[in-house]
Design a protein that fits this description.
With 258 residues, this protein is of the alpha+beta class. It is built from 4 helices and 15 strands. The strands form 4 sheets. The chain has a 7-stranded mixed β-barrel. Strands 5-6-7 form a 3-stranded antiparallel β-sheet, covered by helices on one side. A hairpin with an 8-residue loop joins β1 and β2.
Length: 258
């Protein structure tokens, strides 16, 4: 079956504002470009830039732990390394995340925003070639918008797809068809990928990305209505290629996926 890419997003700083793109280049064996390049420790995490390894997201300032992270609006300039951040009632921030001074300044700005919600000293961390993905093998995340709409219909209220912080949002696939595709190949634009696993959702999805309020128990809604807590899939990129909004997403047929 064939759908199409309805939207593309990256998240340069883990936990912070999704940035919409018109296209991207996917690389075999690599995570989504410029996605989760930086993270902010919420107290010492044990992260070692000289020997970076995957750490649980709870170690960082993420929506799962701190809803007020959504009050910040961030934008990263990949060419210059400059991050801009705004929040209601606070001065704007602009600084380079490529140097220690800029990282320290952003951590201070964020500490003022989060206040007592932060559990310890905040510190921006990064390492060349390392990305702070939620799953160590989750290269690219995809959400089927039909599945989101089915959840909306079940609970009788709107669900912002950005709660799920995916890289790709796809239209044209039947609702929940993707939950049966583990191990299957699919085409994403001119790239090829293999479905790795379903994404098990956590309390980060409870936070409204606009208001920064915990206003919907998405995990409970998923379990109550479907008997699982999955929404979206992780895929591994197997063949490099460009993707763009509007590109086809050719997935297994329902017969071959069952």
């Amino acid at each position: 079956m064939t759908g199409h890419i309805a939207a593309i997003y990256r998240h340069p700083v883990k936990g912070f504002t999704p940035e919409q793109l018109s296209g991207a280049n996917l690389t075999a064996g690599a995570a989504f470009p410029c996605d989760r390049l930086f993270a902010v420790e919420n107290g010492p995490s044990g992260f070692d830039p000289a020997a970076p390894v995957h750490l649980p997201k709870q170690k960082f300032t993420v929506l799962m732990a701190i809803a007020d992270v959504a009050k910040a609006r961030t934008r990263y300039d990949e060419a210059t390394g400059v991050l801009t951040a705004t929040a209601a009632g606070r001065p704007d921030f602009m600084g380079s995340l490529g140097d220690e001074a800029g990282q320290t300044a952003f951590a201070a700005w964020l500490a003022d925003l989060l206040g007592d919600e932060a559990q310890g000293e905040l510190k921006v961390v990064q390492a060349p070639g390392h990305q702070f993905t939620d799953h160590p093998l989750g290269h690219v995340s995809i959400v089927n918008l039909a599945s989101v709409r089915d959840l909306e219909a079940r609970i009788g209220r709107p669900v912002d797809p950005l709660r799920f912080r995916a890289n790709l949002y796809v239209e044209g696939w039947p609702a929940w068809a993707e939950t049966r595709w583990e191990g299957r190949e699919l085409m994403l634009g001119f790239a090829r990928a293999k479905v790795f696993k379903n994404i098990v959702r956590c309390a980060a999805t409870h936070v409204n990305p606009v208001t920064a309020e915990r206003d919907l128990d998405v995990v409970k809604a998923l379990f109550d209505n479907y008997g699982h807590m999955n929404l979206g899939i992780y895929v591994h990129v197997t063949n490099s290629g460009p993707i763009a909004v509007g590109d086809a997403c050719t997935a297994p047929t329902m017969e071959s996926a069952e």
